[in-house]
Amino acid sequence: MTSQSPRQAQIEQVRDQGYAVVPKFVPQGELAKLNDAARAQLAGRAEPLELEADLRYPGAPSSRAAAGGETVRRLLDAYARDPAFARWGTAPAVREWMQAYFGEPVLMSRAHHNCLMTKHPLYGSLTAWHRDIRYWSFEREDLVSVWLALGEEQIDNGALWFVPGSHRMVFDADRFDDAKFLRTDRADNAEVIRAADSPRLAPGDAVFFHCNTLHSAGKNLSNAVKFSLVYTYHGRSNAPKAGTRSASRPELALE
Ligand SMILES: O=C(O)CCC(=O)C(=O)O
Predict the structure, then answer these.
(1) Does residue 226 have its Cβ closer than 6 Å to ligand 1?
(2) pTM value surpassing 0.85
(3) What's the mean per-residue pLDDT of the chain?
(4) CA 154 – CA 20 distance, rounded (Å)
(5) Does the C-beta of 159 come closer than 6 Å to ligand 1?
(6) Alpha carbon of 56 to ligand 1 centroid (Å)
(7) SS3 letters for 143-174?
(8) What would the pLDDT profile of 138-174 be if each residue is shown by its tens digit?
(9) Cα–Cα distance between 55 and 61 in angstroms, integer?
């Protein structure tokens, strides 16, 4: 019997559970560069930015004029912001993982995620239960994101929660609200969420997760900003639908 490589085991876990944590995915030296770039980018506040006040998820300021109204949630287009971010998004380790998962050449979407997420202690919001496919329009619902923890991520500073196996569950449309968040007023949804887990991430750990995996995240109750770099990939045969936001930006082929 041949034993499975660590990467193949991670891929099987994403197929089966919808997500997999890969410890120490980024070497220490590169992680330090990513952290430096992240802090410089937040201080520089170059557009395009998404502010907490724009989305107004629970815990966010009510407007840009309110206290904390300028709090950044996402620094968009991470790929173009800094060479360290671009290097990570197209790193051989990411490309090889994705090619092994999709079984074909892969592309990175620059229209979705492709961001540095910041979660701030005071005005950082919580994100309710959802599937990322709500953002996207592709031929097939088969995309995988990589969430890279630049620092510690745990329940107290707003880490992600996942429902194992939820990417394979079939839900009627009325299980979700108009914004495609899982409705919290339903006992059947509460039952699904009961199985959720929040993996603790160390700096440099990555979580790979499928676009249909139900996930959420809490508020940041610590006193430090949490930084995470997030990119999404798909196989070459799975094209974005013409005329949708998913097709609005040229994609990046990982060669
Ligand atoms: O950090 C968070 O609040 C969760 C973000 C998230 O789930 C998303 O952007 O899809």
Answers:
(1) no
(2) yes
(3) 96
(4) 16
(5) no
(6) 13
(7) CEEEEEECCCECHHHCCEEECCCHHHCCCCHH
(8) 999 999 999 999 999 999 999 999 999 999 999 999 9
(9) 9
